[in-house]
């Protein structure tokens, strides 16, 4: 019988093509799992995949053979049938090994296609030989060659598709289905071409009772192979799902870790490195041997911005300051935020004193420019302290402590500058820390005190009032001067409670004076710029006046010029409210600040006080004398009274009298006196007929 006369069962042909498609789809999917896995898991996928894929190809082959209607039942030899199955599984294993690792080069593709094609042909033709027939099968050479060519070509196409669809990520389902159909066409084409090449001896087909019947083979092959392939597909799909889910979980975990690391190592407001990350980078640089510099940067009077304009403005100021600092340094440098208004700049390796000096100038300059925040223009400055490695410390703590001490030294020099660390700064910083602790204790225990210095009318010599001055004698520190107390209080946030205590104590003293003597005591109290710009300052003054019972016209508030220029609009609003109450306003230490004539005309000012620094040499230095004359002339042009501070001799008194100044105070008349000493001094002065004029009340 010749295959030219054979016919095929269409249903079984379609079934064989369907199984070829399933086998191809399984091969594509399992190849992806083999490539994606590693270690012993990869070997398991290789073994299971080869078995499922080989079983599918082998099943397609035998169902295709059963599709040929040969006019009699055909039996198959068990041994050769098993050999053909083993050949299919081995061929599948070789294919999976080829695609398991590396790139698909032309040589690799060609070699793999030849091996796979040879294996498929071996499976097919060994399976053909398994048929129990008399005689030998012969093959048409041309068709045999075509079947081999199709097998090799189909193998090459299969390898290329597997690589193409499993390069980096799982390909879409429709692409894998199309590829499976293409591969099935190749496999089926090879099979049916090989069937067509067979030439059967006439009458040679026999029924062998010892072999497998065609019906048994069809049922077992179709069911078992399909179950195996579907099971493999389901396992592969489940594994792919779990892998995808694990990948998503891993990605989520990575994102969470990144966010957590961001939270741990970054400042939430500015996204700058925080202290933890700074210290890690500092330790890395300390592990080397190169020199470097550490900067401690502090914004001057930042708390005042928060108190007057609100924390939202303060936050914007911090962000803009951080941006300026970032722009001022190199990429190799680190800018970190370590506190509310405190930053640390860590210079990269091999940076010495010269580079540090250049950068310090740049930092001070860039932060000295005004900040535009919404509709507000905010002006702050900065104080910078610098420590050098290894000269100023060999560990991170020493370097940061010494840079901090240098920063406070810069503040003591007037702020808006920088200082390199010097050994004696450590003891100064230790005193500052002790001062803060003792000052807090003094406020809590009410152990501070006030002294009162009389003001005198130049023309008549009458006492017109007193100025309340802070005094502090601590059990451990001894006498602490106001010049040391006030800057410390401003930097530590104690100025508001301290200022409120001074104002309350002075008002209470003046009211008791009035109650005891029947005379009004006109009292002046110094006010910090931070107090004036505090949102609740006016309400605080009203409450203190109500609590003490002092008439507002007996109170004068003395302000420095810096209090006016810091936030002019806020200062103007507060001073107008205070002046409306009847409280007098004077500018203290006039001539040492940055105010100008236009600003002075805006504010409800009653008096200008000439700073004692000008009065000290006014009679011996022509320049100081010119300044004093200019201040007096300015005050007279604005219809303001003039008070000269620090008058210590008759020559100074004669000068201000000649210039028609209104009042003076200083050691020439009296030093600052305690409350009880003032009463005795006042009584002695009154006995000479020079007491305060009651008409001065409310002046």
TrEMBL record:
Domain GGDEF: 290-423
Pfam families (alphabetical): EAL (PF00563), GGDEF (PF00990), MHYT (PF03707)
Cross-referenced Gene3D superfamilies: 3.30.70.270, EAL domain (3.20.20.450)
Keyword Protein biosynthesis in annotation: no
PANTHER family assigned: BIOFILM ARCHITECTURE MAINTENANCE PROTEIN MBAA, DIGUANYLATE CYCLASE DGCP
NCBIfam families associated with the record: GGDEF
Protein name (record): EAL domain-containing protein
Database matches in SMART domains: EAL, GGDEF
Residue ranges occupied by any EAL domain in the UniProt entry: 432-686
Cited SUPFAM superfamilies: EAL domain-like, Nucleotide cyclase
InterPro entries in alphabetical order: Biofilm_reg_signaling, EAL_dom, EAL_sf, GGDEF_dom, MHYT_dom, Nucleotide_cyclase, Rev_trsase/Diguanyl_cyclase
Keyword annotations: Membrane, Transmembrane, Transmembrane helix
Phylogenetic lineage: Bacteria, Pseudomonadati, Pseudomonadota, Gammaproteobacteria, Oceanospirillales
Transmembrane domains' residue ranges: 6-32, 44-68, 74-99, 106-127, 139-165, 177-197, 217-238
Domain MHYT: 8-201
